[in-house]
Amino acid sequence: MNHLSIIKDIEAKKFEKIYFLHGEEAYYIDAITDAIIENALEEHERDFNQFITYGKDADALSIMSQAKEYPMMAQRKLIVIKEAQDFKGMEELTPYFEAPSEQTVFVVNYKYKKFDSRKKSIKAAQKNGLLFNSEKVPEYKLVDWINGFVKTKGYSITPKATMLLAEFLGNDLSRIANELEKLEILLEKGTNINEIHIEENIGISKDYNIFELANAIGTRDVLKANVIVDYFDHNPKATSLVPVVSNLFNLFARVMKIHFLGNQSRENLAKAVGVHPFVAGQLINTAKIYNAKKVAANIAILHEYDLKSKGIGNSSFTEGQLMKELIYRLMH
Q1: How is residue 17 annotated by DSSP?
Q2: Domain count, the chain
Q3: Which of 21, 160, 211, 327 could form a disulfide with 167 if both were Cys (CB 3.0 to 4.6 A apart)?
Q4: pTM, whole model, 2 decimals?
């Protein structure tokens, strides 16, 4: 069951006795938790029937005592442990998870990692409630995720705007959702979100960003690459050498894979390299420009500048100077 199905049931007032939400992707865990808090109780019922605590402050005995109490002038009680990854007493809750109250909705919000499936507490919670493992969205599915999220909000989005968000924000779904929700306030429903909307309202330059730099280097557009790096040099807040090196390493690592794949169709490459087909098409063109020998040399160069970005082997050059030197060596 995905998070949208769970939320749909919650909005229909179909509640489980226990929600044990865990995993690496915090966005889905928080979305389900927020939906439960919003729907489990009416506002006037919350003072006496809602108990929300944080893992680092939580006490197992107090939590179980609250969970076993009958609701006051309400149909149910709500118990939520937020940031449960900081809670040390999860196993102490096992007796409650084995015999949960029929009048209580109990939520464990355990983020950024999976809970140990061998523990008794999670086994008991799964037997008598809902266990949800929140997994990270793979990088190659991020574009599709953004498109789907935007669609659920009543908008559409251009491919370039999607790629800007994906490259600039990475697969931090909470951050992507927050930025897109800002646009929801500013733009009418049905708007096709483009790179100008992204630049003006989120602050990601449509022309001067790591995504465009990778494109320029990938097509060996020396002039464009130098213009972008010059912009970075004069606008230090735009980016730094570390993410530039990381992004370009990913570019050439993927191009190297393409050189050694038999089936060169865009769809096969997209699956093999782990990118969207739109990106795969660009990588195929890059592989035609940079042969395997040059790609291997570029990966070695990027390793060298990764060390320099961390102060190893670099005593006097600024980040701007290092970036300019780097892109020259990559393209020549």
Answers
A1: S
A2: 3
A3: 211
A4: 0.71
Q: What does the alpha-carbon distance between residue 219 and residue 159 come to, in Å, rounded to a whole number?
A: 19
At 229-258, the pLDDT tens digits run 998 888 887 788 888 998 899 899 989 988
184, 202, 220 — which closes off a domain?
202
Alpha-carbon span 222 to 18, nearest angstrom: 58
Helix and strand totals (H; E) in the chain: 17, 7
Is residue 221 located within the same domain as residue 171?
no
Alpha-carbon torsion (80, 82, 87, 90), positive or negative: positive
Among 118, 75, 120, smallest CA distance to 96 is for 120
Q: Are 233 and 213 in contact (CB under 8 A)?
A: no
Bigger pLDDT: 200 vs 118: 118
Neighbours of 44 (CB within 10 A): 10
Nearest to 149 by CA among 129, 126, 124, 169: 169
- Does 57 score more than 80 pLDDT? yes
Q: pLDDT band for position 199 (50/70/90)? A: confident
